[in-house]
Amino acid sequence: MKSLTTDAGERPAAEDRSTGGPCVPRVYRLPGVYAPQTDTGLLAATVRREELPPGARSLDLCTGTGVLAVVAARRGARATAVDISRTATAAARFNALVHRCRIRVLRGDLDAPVPDERFDLVTVNPPYVPSEDAAAPVRGARRSWDAGTDGRLLLDRVCARAPRLLTSSGVLLLVQSSLAGVDATLEALGRRGLTARVVERRTQAFGPVMSARAGWFAARGLTAPGTRVEELVVIRAFRP
Questions:
Q1: Average pLDDT value for residue range 25-31
Q2: pLDDT score of 145 more than 90
Q3: In the chain, helix, strand, coil percent, each to 5?
Q4: Is 72 helix (H, G, I), strand (E, B) or coil?
Q5: What was the pLDDT predicted at 2?
Q6: How far apart are CA 218 and CA 158, in angstroms?
Q7: What is the C-alpha R_g of the chain?
Q8: How far is it, in rounded angstroms, from Cα 163 to Cα 109?
Q9: Phi and psi (nearest 5°) for 139?
Q10: Which of 99, 92, 67 has the alpha carbon at shortest distance from 175?
């Protein structure tokens, strides 16, 4: 989780502008909302390469600033963005206005706000950092990245819900860390009838959050002792 946040210049003191690299539009971020980082940039680049049908419907879960919904909307998708955080949905609505994108922003737990809808593209950058706390935080910045002792609290739920969110030709694009079990995600999606594979990889040094937990990761067997790097992957899944 390497931050690529930059200042905006003139702006309200409570906001900053964040970027996940050249594939990610600059967006405003409110305190406590996940800043677009390397994982965001990898996922955005993959979205840009994805072939979307005319009138495609997209869904971005755990949307944060809404930046991935902006990327999809710029590609012509009828975009929906969902986050459980009120602050995140406020940021996503604001960024949709800034980028002049028509994005439906909904607040709720994963797909709860869209229970009977199907999408041509579903993107997810969920919390995936292993934590000493088994339960997910209910507030604060850690809510954006902590995901239980194995990092899979949200990943497993996304895998379980993905098939019913996709149209017959729909695609799921999901980004996660190698510390949260890439094979476990591939296997979980496969058990639910989807064909899944890794389409993008990038190795990077630990950021501050990961570095502070490096000893605990090693003690848990999630990394070898002394490891200070993680691999980020983008997984693409679809119906065969």
A1: 90
A2: no
A3: 30, 30, 40
A4: helix
A5: 36
A6: 27
A7: 17
A8: 17
A9: -160, 170
A10: 67
Tokens 């030709």 locate to 169
Position 68: which residue type?
Answer: L
What number of residues does the chain have?
Answer: 240
> Pairing between strand 57-61 and 119-124?
parallel
Q: Are 104 and 130 in contact (CB under 8 A)?
A: no
Burial category of 202 from C-beta neighbours within 10 Å (exposed 0-12, middle 13-18, buried 19 and up): middle
User: Which pTM does this prediction carry?
Assistant: 0.90
- Count CB neighbours of 155 within 10 A: 26
Pinpoint the alpha helices (H) of 76-120: 86-98
CA distance 87 to 105: 12
Which of 14, 36, 40, 38 has its CA nearest to residue 27? Answer: 36
Q: CB of 24 within 8 A of CB of 84?
A: no
The answer to whether the CB of 59 falls within 8 A of the CB of 121 is yes
